[in-house]
Amino acid sequence: MKNSRVKIYIPRTLEKKIRKFLSSPEIIAILGARQVGKTTLMRKIYNELSEPKVFIDFEDQEALNLFDEDIKAFARLYVEGNKYVMIDEVQYSQKGGKHLKYLYDNYKTKFIISGSSSLDIALKAVSFLVGRVFLFELFPLNFEEFCSFKAPRILRLMGERVKKGEAFSLPFHEKLLGHFEEFALWGGYPRVVLSEEEEEKQEVLKNIYNTYLLKDLRGFFRLATESNIQKLIRALAFQVGNLIQYNELSRLAELSYGVLKKHLAILEETYILKLSKPFFTNKRIEIVKSPKIYFIDTGLRNYICQDFRALNNRPDSGALLENTVATEFIKRQLELMHWRTKSKGEVDFVLTGRSGVIPVEVKSGIVKNAGKAFLSFIEKYNPSRAYLLHTGTVLSKSNADLIDIQFMPAYTAGFLEL
Fold first, then answer.
1. Which of 23, 63, 401, 413 has the most CB atoms within 10 Å of its CB?
2. How many structural domains is the chain composed of?
3. Element holding 346 (H helix, E strand)
4. Which residues are within 8 A (CB) of 254 and not within 5 positions of it... i.e. 6 or more apart?
5. Nearest residue to 321 via CA among 141, 138, 137, 143
6. What global pTM score does this model have?
7. Which of 88, 107, 137 corresponds to the end of one domain?
8. pLDDT tens for each residue of the chain, 418 residues long
9. Which residues of 46-74 are buried (b: 16+ CB within 10 A; e: fewer)?
């Protein structure tokens, strides 16, 4: 799929951040899941860099073997005389950290690399690069990037109105809600977004799941079989937004507790899942151990569930909407936390902003009043602001004695002021 006939480039917000560091000496590392657009982004930047330069793909076994087995020869062939060296798919190297350190220390060349997993995994010995690398994570498209391709005029108007706190008219709201539902159902993998037919979208997601995800998990982590990991992923797909029940997952995936925890860590390291940790200050009355689970791409999650029905025609609409909002926070690189009391009072997200903790609740349907648990959290922690995201039409505020709760359409999650 890397050589897909689709060549359209969807602008990524990460591109501007990376460009700011092109003149710095540090290695730039772009990490993220397969098929999120790392190669496309690198090619876009590469094509606009001045000569001399070289682009190397470590799926080329010859180049990879030379890098791993004879780094000096690799340097003579690919590094010497070049101002920029880009290396794609660096996770295939067994000596990535050690040999990149050698190149960095001996050549005044700018290195830009990509990897389909976390820095620890992609470079194996990450300690070699302490102080020598800037890390950037690329995720599937967020809703802003999605709309920049699907509906750029609507996106600009939405941004203006959110910034000014202006109400949305019903027709405008319904247009945005329609785009957000498509985003929730099919996710943000660029190749999926570029596909016009639903059948093609499903085929792309199938390819990502079978060809890349399972292949990588089995190959990189030396799993004897992907049977257990498939069972685990499927079980998790039906539990998004819920507290993890380790005993139940162990039974469904046929994994011991220790191996289960290892597999969950692997799924996080490879940008498939994100765990939301409990927020607490009082162990006696608040849940302190059980995390919640979210998929980083809802399209992949829906493929695993084999369910692409509209939000108003599926039993998990609330969980899917919550997971979609979670992906917006993940792509803003916010730490996900949630709050739950032993009496089962719950707040979906507790984010950390410039002025402290910020509670966010997500509800499917139109909501006009905050729930008891949400108000209880506000009373206990006195946050500077609080958000209730729903599918209602307008931006509004509701006074909760201590602060104003802001009621916002769910598709504004990526624009919330923190």
1. 413
2. 2
3. strand 346-347
4. 228, 231
5. 143
6. 0.91
7. 137
8. 444 444 688 999 999 999 999 999 999 999 998 899 999 999 999 999 999 999 999 999 999 999 999 999 999 999 999 999 999 998 888 888 899 999 999 999 999 999 887 656 556 656 678 889 999 999 999 999 999 999 999 888 888 888 887 878 888 999 999 999 999 999 999 999 999 999 999 999 999 998 877 777 776 666 656 788 889 999 999 999 999 989 999 999 998 999 898 889 888 888 899 999 999 887 666 556 789 999 999 999 999 999 999 999 999 999 999 999 999 999 999 999 999 988 888 999 999 988 899 999 999 988 888 889 999 999 999 998 999 999 987 666 766 666 778 899 999 999 998 8
9. beeeeeebbbbbbeeeebbebbbeebeeb
Length of the chain, in residues: 418
Q: Token digits for 278?
A: 């409990």
Amino acid making up residue 187: G
If asked whether residues 47 and 104 sit together in one domain, one would say yes
The DSSP element (H or E) to which 31 belongs, if any, is: strand 27-31
Nearest to 97 by CA among 57, 64, 59, 130: 130
Give the integer Cα–Cα distance in Å for 30 and 354.
26
3-class SS of residue 393:
coil
* Residues 75, 80, 83, 88, Cα dihedral to 10°: -20
331 lies in the same domain as 211: yes
Residue 4 maps to a domain: no
Q: Are residues 287 and 334 in the same domain?
A: yes
Q: Do 286 and 200 sit in the same domain of this protein? A: yes
By the 8 A CB rule, do 274 and 335 touch? Answer: no
